[in-house]
């Protein structure tokens, strides 16, 4: 089954995302960097990559879901890892549960869209490659 290939790929993407979160939090703690905009861009890029890779396993819907899965893990475990590493003055003030739920829901909707964009990019790649092969 094609979806069996997706599990190790998603596990790898999630591990890379969590390692990036931890590495960025460590470097932010050491060098005093702001832990914000760069990590958000990296997360969104990873959601697109997850959708791109998942397209091979099941099409556009699975691409969108792959982006959402990576997002959920990133926004839960990744945030927890960052929260544990960064100095207490930066991260110990947590928003309320409704605010956290709203942020997670908005992130998942964005990740669904970005995963779908990754899947559409993968589909475009296949169409472009097929077109180049047929003209030569």
Quick structural overview:
With 136 residues, the chain is an all-alpha fold. It has 5 helices and no strands. Helix 2 packs across helix 5 (97-135).
Describe the model:
By secondary structure, the chain is mainly alpha-helical. Helix 1 runs antiparallel to helix 2 (37-58), helix 2 (37-58) runs antiparallel to helix 3 (60-85) and helix 2 (37-58) packs across helix 5. The chain is elongated, with a radius of gyration of 17 Å. Helices cover 88% and strands 0% of the residues. The two termini are 33 Å apart. It has 5 helices and no strands. The mean pLDDT is 83.
Shape: elongated
Kindly report how far apart the N and C termini lie.
Answer: 33 Å
Mean pLDDT: 83
Low-confidence stretches: none
Order of helices and strands: HHHHH
The structural class is: mainly alpha
User: What share of the residues lie within helices?
Assistant: over 70%
Radius of gyration: 17 Å
Instruction: Outline the biggest β-sheet.
Output: none
The percent range for strand residues is under 5%
Number of E-state strands: 0
Number of helices: 5
């Amino acid at each position: 089954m094609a979806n069996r290939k997706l599990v190790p790929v998603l596990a790898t993407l999630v591990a890379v995302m969590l390692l990036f979160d931890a590495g960025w939090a460590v470097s932010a703690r050491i060098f005093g960097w702001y832990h914000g905009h760069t990590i958000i861009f990296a997360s969104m890029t990873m959601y697109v990559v997850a959708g791109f890779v998942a397209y091979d396993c099941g099409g556009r819907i699975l691409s969108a879901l792959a982006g959402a899965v990576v997002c959920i893990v990133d926004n839960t475990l990744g945030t927890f890892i960052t929260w544990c590493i960064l100095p207490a003055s930066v991260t110990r003030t947590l928003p309320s549960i409704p605010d956290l739920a709203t942020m997670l829901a908005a992130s998942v909707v964005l990740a669904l869209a970005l995963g779908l964009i990754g899947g559409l990019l993968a589909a475009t790649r296949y169409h472009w490659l097929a077109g180049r092969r047929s003209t030569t």
